[in-house]
Every structure is written in C-alpha cells, then in structure tokens.
Amino acid sequence: MLTLIEDALDRFLNEDDGRPVVMLNLLRFQEDGGRERYADYLTVATPIVARFGAEIVYVGSGLPALSAEPGQAWDAVALVRYPTRRAFAELAMDADYRAKAAPMREAALAEAVLQPLQAASS
After folding, report:
1. Residue 122: its pLDDT value, please?
2. Closest of 56, 61, 69 to residue 27, by C-alpha
C-alpha cells in the first residue's frame, strides 16, 4: 500500500521550485495477478493523470538485478512526469483518482517505493 509520509510530503511541497518532477515508482506485484491488475490500473489512471498535466513516461518490467542485495530486485518500474510538485499532490488528493484508480493500484502491489527525481540544474 502506498503511504505518503505527511512530513515528507510537506517538505516536498514546501521546497517546490516550480520545476517539473519525475516520480520513479519501484513496483513489486502481488503474486496472484498483480501485474495484470496494475495494467488495468494504468488504463484507468492515465486519463486522470493527464488532467493534472502529468504524463506516464515509461513503464517497464524488471530484469534480473545486476547489482543488488537479496530482495532488492523490482518487478517493474514506472516514471511519471509532473509539471510541478503541486500537480502531484493535487492528483494524490483528487477524489476521482482516490475512488477509481488508487484502490486498483493498492490491490496490484505487494510493495512500492515512490522516489521523486528532478533534473540537475545546469
């Protein structure tokens, strides 16, 4: 289950510089059809995400890890680009997303990590 840590989210939003952010999603699926349920989630979530100016940039299956401790390999990764940090927060709180897409995501995943990324300043 994806749990946003309130303090971390507050800090994330307070440090918003207005630049785009990419969310790296590390995904471990439920054993009994989680991958298929995640595909269904993407179908529902994609148009909702787009309403916030966000874009699902990449979704790919994990291959065997080349360098990782036991248990650190992931089934898949997803990259979602948001125009601002605020757009991410608005999506996370959106009633439509929370009612339709979020439960599908939770049912599909055994474990997930959500890591914000931002391009280095030049």
Report:
1. 54
2. 61
What's the token pair of residue 3?
């749990």
The count of C-alpha atoms lying within 13 angstroms of the C-alpha of 58, restricted to the half-sphere facing its C-beta, is 11
Question: Would you list the domain boundaries of the chain?
Answer: 31-63+72-122
Supply φ then ψ for residue 108, to 5 degrees: -85, -25
- Note the helical H segments in the chain: 6-14, 34-51, 85-93, 95-96, 102-108
Q: What is the pLDDT of residue 23?
A: 96
The model's confidence at residue 6, banded by pLDDT at 50, 70 and 90, is: confident
Residue 6 CB coordination number (10 Å): 8
Considering the domain 31-63+72-122, what is its CATH architecture? 2-Layer Sandwich (3.30)
